[in-house]
Design brief:
The structure is a single chain. Helix 2 runs antiparallel to helix 19, helix 6 runs parallel beside helix 7 and helix 18 packs across helix 24. The chain contains 26 helices and 12 strands. The protein starts with a helix and ends with a helix. The radius of gyration is 28 Å and the shape is globular. The strands form 3 sheets. It has an 8-stranded mixed beta sheet with strand order 5-6-4-3-7-10-9-11, with helices on both faces. Strands 1-2 form a two-stranded antiparallel ribbon. The protein has 2 domains: 368 residues, Spore Coat Polysaccharide Biosynthesis Protein SpsA, Chain A (Alpha-Beta Complex), CATH 3.90.550; 220 residues, no CATH class. It is 51% helix and 8% strand. The structure holds 2-acetamido-2-deoxy-beta-D-glucopyranose (2 copies). One 2-acetamido-2-deoxy-beta-D-glucopyranose binds next to helix 21. It is a multi-pass membrane protein. Pfam families: Cellulose_synt (PF03552). It is found in: Golgi apparatus membrane.
């Protein structure tokens, strides 16, 4: 028995091959040093062509090299975790903690109610004692249709939960489950029960969809539920009282499923909003949820998921608890983060949405250094720590202590609702530490990452749990502009963190491991990559057109470090991508997105930061769309790039693509017509030709979108005209000036 007790609840494995990796990266670093030396020692003399271009390249290469160094710590020591959930239930089944699950939604137009309900239902059906489970839906749009949908879902859940339990249904999101069995050919043993439950689901779905379509809750439903009366004082989504309704609660005798079992607690919350009071976006919503839930269920563990991320494994809650409840290491762990995985990423992942290398390689590495970031979804927290507790070595969570505490206060459900409402009012946080030292941090576009960092700075660790079978599945962006805008927000938020009080560059010094510090900087300095990348995409090509070499020629010994670094680094990236489960085509697509993010998302984020700094613009939180129109999703399935409307970002991308095309073509024409020099240019300017050539190849979808495609997803004519004019005049001007 004693031996059994001491067996850990989870295991940590270290990756192999670290020595080879270290040797390889050292050799690359030597190559980079040679490149720097070459640049410094070969600066053209005063009066020679290309002096300033050369110095620019030197700066860009210095920055690329330094940034490259930052990525190393989290490749040195990746770790992989495996929980043992049967041990958990052997030891702790009786004293499992309460768990509160937060689902946040913000816009019913972009996040359809049916999708949100599937997420809610999937987490309600976790394989977990229902009396210890509570689900909270925060609706930042305060939409009565979402409330109506949740009402419908609570009724359907009374059938769905017993059904899931009885037939061990996986996944527990009804939509995903029905889809998975429709494609599955072997006969089920529960056909008789399947048909009625599917009918119930489809009826619910069509009622919700109808209500959403007409934009109104059915007339006959309103008077039946008193909850709707709370919308009487509603004027707009930015101006209303707190709306809070406990839809299911153990106190209420009707909150039983069809088999008579207790249901999880289910709560709808739309916190108070007033136009003159900052609502702090998702961080504000999460903090209201933290307070309201502390009154209603006060779960020790909190899981938060985005409204599009349904649970794909009914055991993942128990898996996460293995980390928290482990006797030896559990007490240091503040949160357990799962990767953000997507259901609708196509095979070759045109927009690099899967973030493969980040989740399969880099986060494991961060875990080895003290823990991954908190990324705002699919994350399990300890309530106390999220609410600001500092680490101390004596801290031990005595899970048994909670066993008999009943957090339900005396009094009726109605009283409980009224008391909880006060906690979600928009004046509650005035003169408190909420948003500063408690709960999620305010004032940053990536509130989750900065909150995770502040928790780490208080001495806690986190754990990365990346199971083969995904714990949650969400929806990735399906158009190019969406993907770019998402990265704009991330990079902007990241840079805000660097400038914030919690800057990983200085504040975190001594509080977290230096490797982790570098890891945070690596992700948060994205914005600063835009200028050097832009420079590299423009200047060498223009000088190619003019015939001035900026790189060593092939016969020079200095050519070797360039060739080695280029080949070595790209093969390494390719291998890492393939190892993470990608395809070769996928890597090519990912490289394209890597480029586009740098020259558009990060650049625009940079301007936004500057504008905000001088007070010219307000923060905005752009939510990415979770549904696509019919023909858009057809093109998405076929992996045809979707450009859509004209926007400055697209114009910029197209201009740069064309600029490179014109430079390369111009150079070729010169070769044909002015034959002196002849083939020598490939000798003297091989690297510049290669760079332009790769840029042209990678931009093939842009040329197609500009001139060849006829469908609606192409680049608009206006963009074609603007970008062609801009690129041509840049080339002509550049030639004319010199
Ligand atoms: C989701 O869960 C199902 C089982 O319900 C499993 O077969 C599938 O592989 C999971 N999906 C992913 C992406 O892990
Ligand atoms: C938003 C979107 O395009 N969702 C799609 C995700 O992928 C599934 C299957 O590939 C589609 O059915 C969804 O429409």
């Amino acid at each position: 028995m004693a031996e059994e007790e001491s067996y850990p609840l989870f295991e940590t494995r270290r990756a192999k091959g670290r020595v080879i990796y270290t040797i390889f990266s050292l050799s690359l670093f030597v190559g980079i040093l040679f490149i720097w030396v070459y640049r410094v020692s070969h600066i053209p003399r005063e009066g020679e062509d290309g002096k300033w271009a050369w110095i620019g390249l030197l700066c860009a290469e210095l920055w690329f090299g330094l940034y490259w160094l930052l990525r190393h710590p989290f490749r040195w020591n990746p770790v992989f975790r495996e929980p043992f959930r049967h041990k958990l239930s052997q030891r702790y089944e009786e004293i499992l903690p309460r768990v509160d699950i937060f689902v946040c939604t913000a816009d019913p137009g972009i996040e359809p109610a049916v999708m949100v309900m599937n997420t809610v239902l999937s987490v309600m059906a976790y394989d977990y004692p229902t009396e210890k489970l509570s689900v909270y839906l925060s609706d930042d749009a305060a939409s009565d249709i979402t409330f109506y949908a949740l009402l419908e879902a609570s009724l359907f859940a009374k059938h769905w939960l017993p059904f899931c339990k009885k037939f061990k249904v996986e996944p527990t999101s009804p939509a995903a489950y029905f889809k998975s069995i429709a494609s599955c050919t072997h006969p089920n043993n529960h056909v008789n029960e399947l048909v009625p439950i599917k009918k119930l689901y489809q009826d619910m779905e069509s009622r919700i969809e109808n209500a959403a379509k007409v934009g109104q809750v059915p007339e006959e439903v309103r008077p039946k539920y008193k909850g709707f009366s709370q919308w009487d004082s509603y004027t707009s989504r930015r101006d209303h009282d707190t709306i809070l309704q406990i839809l299911l609660h153990g106190k209420d005798s009707s909150a039983k499923d069809v088999d008579g079992n207790v249901m999880p607690i289910l709560v709808y919350l739309a916190r108070e909003k007033r136009p003159q009071v900052a609502h702090n976006f998702k961080a504000g919503a999460m903090n209201s949820l933290l307070r309201v839930s502390s009154m209603i269920s006060n779960g020790e563990i909190i899981l938060n998921v985005d409204c599009d991320m349904y649970s794909n494994n009914s055991q993942s809650l128990r898996d996460a608890l293995c980390f928290f409840m482990d006797e030896v290491k559990g007490h240091e762990i503040a949160f357990v983060q799962t990767p953000q995985c997507f259901e609708n990423v196509t095979n070759n992942d045109l927009y690099g949405g899967a973030l493969r290398v980040i989740y399969e390689v880099e986060f494991h590495g961060l875990d080895g250094l003290g823990g991954p970031f908190y990324i705002g979804t699919g994350c399990f927290h300890r309530r106390e720590i999220l609410c600001g507790r500092k680490f101390n070595d004596q801290y031990k969570n005595d899970w048994k202590e909670y066993k008999n505490i009943d957090h339900m206060k005396e009094g009726s459900l109605h009283e409980l609702e009224e008391k909880s409402k006060a906690l979600a009012s928009c004046t509650y946080e005035e003169n408190t530490l909420w948003g500063k030292k408690m709960g999620l941090q305010y004032g940053c576009a990536v509130e989750d990452v900065i909150t995770g960092l502040s928790i780490k700075c208080r001495g806690w660790k986190s754990v990365y749990y990346n199971p083969q079978r995904r714990a949650f599945l969400g929806v990735a962006p399906t158009t190019l502009p969406e993907a770019l805008v998402q990265h704009k927000r991330w990079s902007e938020g990241g840079f805000q963190i660097v400038l914030s009080k919690y800057s990983p560059a200085w504040y975190a010094y001594g509080l977290i491991s230096p490797g982790l510090q570098m890891g945070y900087c690596y992700y948060n300095l994205w914005v600063l990559l835009s200028w050097p990348t832009l420079y590299y995409c423009i200047i060498p090509s223009l000088y190619l057109l003019k015939g001035i070499p900026l790189f060593p020629q092939m016969s020079s010994p200095w050519f070797i470090p360039f060739a080695y670094v280029i080949l070595g680094d790209s093969s390494y990236c390719l291998l890492e991508f393939l190892w993470s489960g990608g395809t070769i085509q996928g890597w090519w697509n990912d490289t394209r997105m890597w480029l586009y993010k740098r020259i558009s998302s990060y650049l625009f984020a940079f301007f936004d930061i500057i504008l905000k700094f001088f007070g010219f613009s307000e923060s905005a939180f752009v939510i990415s769309a979770k549904v696509a129109e019919e023909n858009v999703s057809q093109r998405y399935e076929k992996e045809v790039m979707e450009f859509g409307n004209s926007s400055p970002m697209l114009t910029l991308l197209a201009t740069l693509a064309l600029l490179n095309l014109f430079c390369l073509l111009g150079m070729l024409l010169k070769q044909v017509f002015i034959s002196e020099g002849g083939l020598r240019i490939y000798e003297t300017m091989a690297l510049q030709v290669l760079l332009s050539g790769v840029l042209v190849l990678i931009n093939v979808p842009v040329y197609q979108g500009l001139y060849l495609r006829k469908d609606k997803g192409r680049l608009p004519i206006s963009v074609a005209v603007k970008s062609t004019t801009l690129a041509l005049s840049a080339c002509v001007l550049f030639i004319a000036i010199s």
